[in-house]
Amino acid sequence: MLARDYAVKIVERWSPERVLPDAMIALHARxxxxxxxxxxxxxxxGGLVLALTGTDVYRDIHRDEDAQHSxxxxxxxxxxxxxxxxxxDERLRWKTRVVYQSARALVPxxxxxxxxxxxxxxxxxxxxDPFTPITALRTLLDExxxxxxxxxxxxxxxxxxxxxxxxxxxxxxTWAGAKDHSRTRRYIKRANLLVIASKMEGGANVxxxxxxxGVPVIASRVSxxxxxxxxxxxxxxxxxxxxxxxxxxxxxxTDKRFLAKLASxxxxxxxxxxxxxxxxxxxxxxxxxx
Length: 290
Hints:
Distance between the termini: 17 Å
Radius of gyration: 20 Å
CATH topology of the largest domain: Rossmann fold
Shape: elongated
Number of strands: 10
Largest sheet: 6 strands, parallel
CATH architecture of the largest domain: 3-Layer(aba) Sandwich
Oligomer: single chain
CATH superfamily of the largest domain: Glycogen Phosphorylase B
Structural class: alpha/beta
């Protein structure tokens, strides 16, 4: 997105021995702290954009001194959805802009006539709360046509062992494991619904990928999801509540008007997630610090 106007180099860490760039975009306030400080020592002002992740916004900036210092010395802050701004000290909000992530629009895939397929995407870890939808699935009536497909790998033995055991006992659950990006998008576009149950989200790209594929979403009512889908979105359930998640799943399966309402609300958000919009916002962020 920047290569049209700039010579861009991507590095894991920046050291002062390298040629001083005109601008740095640092990803993650805590993890990129050393690079941020080194850059600021070489360039006293200007040139520094800091893009904040979900763990930054909803955890690190509230308790980690390095992350807090990064916020102070950056010239411009980028967040992925507007609710994230509320987590920042009022002194910092003036230099913060929202840049929604984007995805190429896809034609929705053909849906199964026998099943109502719900997809959950993301590596298995506690922040994503993957087992709330899985528990919800197991409480549905036997006659339900709902099937849940989870795409994403297990990052630890606990999650791997648990999902393997549950998948053996619950025939309506399929654990597809980790897939590359293009295959994951094909899974998404063929689903009737996407569920995201996260405890913490900076601005979930999987919501972008569902919305731009014409697939409605149900989501935990947490700040990051509300920032992506809007305050008045009808498809929220209480975080951690398998009961609420199951009720919403079942309503989407049985109430065509409700599902159409979610699809309509998502379609109205799709323009926010256009690649050209994201590219323009990123170029504007860089231009502002030069």
